[in-house]
Description:
By secondary structure, this protein is of the alpha/beta class. It has a single domain, classed as Vaccinia Virus protein VP39 (Rossmann fold, 3-Layer(aba) Sandwich), CATH 3.40.50. The chain contains 9 helices and 7 strands. It has a 7-stranded mixed beta sheet, sandwiched between helices. It is globular.
Amino acid sequence: MSHPIQFMFDKISSRYDFLNHFLSLGRDRIWRKKAVLKLRAVRKTQDTPIKILDLCGGTGDFAEEALRQSCSGSKALIADFSLGMIQKVIPKKISALPMQADAQILPIKTEKFDIALCGFGMRNITNLSQGLEEVLRSLKPGGHLLVLEFFAPQGLWPNFFYKVLAPLFLPAVAVLFGSQLSAYQYLVRSIKGFQNTEQFAQTCFKAGYGQVLVQPLDGGLCALVIAQKPPVEEMPWDSM
């Protein structure tokens, strides 16, 4: 990941949670809840503790929601390249370990986690394929990656929102809250320059994931993607 982006997130870390909720009108909380519920349905969740990796985890909101919906005893690791973001995890007293780390080179053992989360962070990974492969390496066979992201707009409403409304609205927010205009310009630019959901699904397949599910949210303004690491194939004698 690039150092300018890292520096930018360090600078806005004190306002990050508030602005997420404000700019989405609170929808970000609902998106996280829906995403984890969908993952639970896909995994046919059992009442056993799991290990969770929250990649590009920011201040830990996604990990917190996943832990809330998981069996007691589940554990989470929140990894983010911004030290400013990671420092904001501690006051929340989430039952998780925060760690500064680059998503492209994770200091994590192979096949360690049952699920990996990434909320609005895939756009910030410089080498997307490498990042997806690192997550794949960290997942146990049959494990799942849950991505919540603003993908490149498709359709009339998302295109109107991101190409007309957002460029007008976000600079006004920056002025109102005395924040960095460049951060909001980057937000819009990174969305329009990112992959759409179909392209991202193909990138997941090429990285080695076996199944990929895509579900648009709020008319396509946001989308969740669930990608599974192929399970270990059962040999005939394993069932004997």
